[in-house]
Design a protein that fits this description.
This protein has 421 residues and is an alpha+beta fold. The protein has 13 helices and 19 strands.
Length: 421
């Protein structure tokens, strides 16, 4: 979907490589952009692009229940190694996403209602600042930078080369999907809206419209078809979990039932995100709640009548719980919105890009009074870069701007979130 055109690319293998590249860029008067995996594109790099994929070390401390994670590591090795001890990171829907970038943006995954956002579980970051210095940011050292990186560090404050995060206990969970025919989507949404209100915090759930593409990677029973899904993950008592999903089975037998007990190491099976890169666009907003208007807007945005919609996924995920009770002060200020709505559309042509922009503008305009803020982790390109002011409350934005002015007064890191611009 996007391409970088930098003056130079630095494939960093260490923190010292990053520091040298930042000092060189600063001396040359060019900006620095950072890429770990290529997921979560913000803007096209025009100066020096630092690729951190080579800094991919992972170390688990099972006694402390922590993980040290390098800048380029994806979630797969963190999850795999942590699961050997019955532990898990608070990763998102796809283990193929870069761990550090995901965490800097908040990090809302399938354990969110029980354990909060991944950014709430960071013990410290190590980062290269605009002057090339390596600093530790924690509650004790550089606390203002630590605060800012936890939710406001979208490539604008420095290059995080390592972090230490807390792990949680999650070995066996009850998760999956119930697939209902697309023509029953309004009824499924109405029932989901009522069912989800009083759910225990152990379950993080979602209502999803899924338009499965007609490609070989998609299993034959669902390939090229559309469904209304109820999906989620319960990390508590397995009998309680089964009873909650049995309510749906008694209400109406799904066309496909994929819910059941599973190791948390197989969490990718819930969202079934594509593994390989695809030309696609993503946009998302936090919502103040669900009502009939929201359901109608979701179905309209994701349905296409006789054929498959270009919007392959429209998902509203249930938040609240521990997300609304952060253990410490962080720059991630959107805490009270209890629903997250994301739209993902395939955009292989310029016409599909334009059509998706129109579809998204119509959706967010229709839901205007229910939108609380954008969710930066699910935004891309210029929408993500320019969303800063609306993603944070005024006090948080002012504080972020002050931190930016302190650690990067010359705007060396200018390809991330537009803080202070």
């Amino acid at each position: 979907m996007y391409s970088h055109r930098p003056l130079a690319v630095v494939e960093a293998a260490s923190a010292s490589d990053v520091a040298e590249a930042v000092r060189a860029a600063s001396a040359a008067g060019v900006r620095v952009a950072v890429q770990a995996t290529g997921h979560g594109f913000t803007t096209q790099a025009e100066g020096i692009l630092i690729v951190t994929a080579g800094i991919d070390h992972v170390a688990i401390d099972p006694e402390a229940a922590t993980a040290r994670v390098g800048a380029g590591a994806r979630w797969e090795p963190v999850l795999e190694q942590a699961q050997q001890y019955g532990l898990a990171p608070l990763l998102g829907s796809s283990p193929g996403v870069g761990a550090v970038g995901y965490t800097l943006g908040g990090g809302f995954g399938w354990l969110g209602r029980r354990y909060g956002l991944c950014v709430d579980r960071v013990r410290w970051f190590r980062a290269i600042l605009a002057d090339g210095s390596l600093v530790t940011a924690s509650a004790e050292e550089n606390p203002d930078l630590f605060w800012a990186l936890r939710g406001g560090g979208h490539g604008s404050l420095g290059v995080v080369v390592e972090m230490e995060i807390e792990l949680v206990e999650a070995a066996q969970v009850y998760g999956g999907n119930l697939l209902y025919p697309i023509d029953s989507a309004p009824e499924v949404f109405d029932r989901y809206r009522e069912w989800s209100v009083d759910l225990p915090e152990e379950i993080t759930s979602a209502f999803t419209i899924m338009n499965y593409p007609h490609i070989e990677d998609v299993p034959e029973p669902v390939r090229g078809r559309s469904f209304a899904l109820v999906r989620g993950c319960h990390c508590g008592d397995p009998d309680e979990a089964a009873a909650l999903i049995d309510e749906w089975r008694r209400w109406r037998q799904p066309a496909v039932d994929m819910f059941g007990s599973m190791p948390f190491g197989a969490v990718a099976d819930i969202s079934q995100d594509p593994i390989d890169p695809v030309p696609a666009m993503s946009s998302a907003r936090w919502l103040s709640g669900l009502d009939q208007e929201v359901g109608e807007a979701i179905i309209e945005a994701a349905a296409a009548g006789d054929g498959l919609s270009p919007a392959i996924i429209a998902e509203t995920r249930h938040a609240g719980g521990a997300i609304a009770r952060p253990p410490a002060d962080t720059a991630y200020s959107t805490r009270q919105a209890d629903r997250l709505l994301q739209i993902v559309a395939l955009t292989p042509t310029s016409e599909s890009v334009a059509g998706t922009h129109t579809r998204l503008e119509r959706l967010w305009s229709r839901l205007g009074n229910r939108v609380v803020a954008p969710y930066l982790n699910f935004l891309e390109g210029e929408e993500r870069r320019e969303a800063g002011r609306s993603a944070f409350d005024p006090a948080t934005w002012q504080r972020l701007t002050a931190v930016k002015a302190k650690v990067d007064p010359d705007g060396v890191f200018g390809d991330g979130l537009a803080i202070g611009a």
